[in-house]
Peptidase S1 domain-containing protein
Amino acid sequence: RLLGGRESRRAEFPWLVSLQSDGDHICGGTIISDRHILTAAHCFDEHDPLGFMVVTGANDLRPLDSEALSYRVHSAQIHRTYDQTAYIPDWDIAILEVERRFQFSQFASSACLPGDNIWFRPGKRCHVAGYGRRSENGLDPYLQYNIETPILTHNICNKGGYEGSISERMICAGYPSTGGTVCVGDSGGPLLCEANDNKWYLAGVVSWSIGCAERKKPDVFTNVQYFMNWINQHANLS
């Protein structure tokens, strides 16, 4: 559950999915085609991705909304450069393919991916959506929340206690004085930004932060734009 956020309206973020193992929510993800999900590689550090179910169309995971549908994962592509032993998760991106096509509706649809001409500059206010906890040691996640968060410069983020860890493969967002907004269970979920064409684009994937909304510790997202060639190749989008 995003700290300081509000509960999402029905079908407000139809791209967001819950990635579940043995019935438990582990991570978020974003629909990017009729069979593919984009998420974070670190979601599978301790779980076999082929054991996951993808749940679409749910605002409430306890019990599942009547519009929610479940899909078994057929295959997974974790970026080969990702190193799960690294202290800072770089190259933190993965694609899941489900066994059957998603049933698209107002509750489940594919997110727009940024083309070469779509960039989101520091200061841009975007939205994060997820099912994460209210606090680091809080109750297990089940309700979908969202919150507005501004993109920060790498310079500000690296000065905020991250000591140069923010690479070009990352986007930093949050509030320099109060910190970020994501918590346990939000990993893999989307950072969505509205472009000049009034469409919402998937700008980032929730990757890491220090604690849950720690003071002066913004959130870090995998930069989707950086990985578009890789995404097109492995999700057969081009």
User: Anything to note?
Assistant: The mean pLDDT is 89. The chain has two domains: 16-110+228-235, 111-225. The two ends are 34 Å apart (CA to CA). The first strand starts at residue 6 and ends at 7.
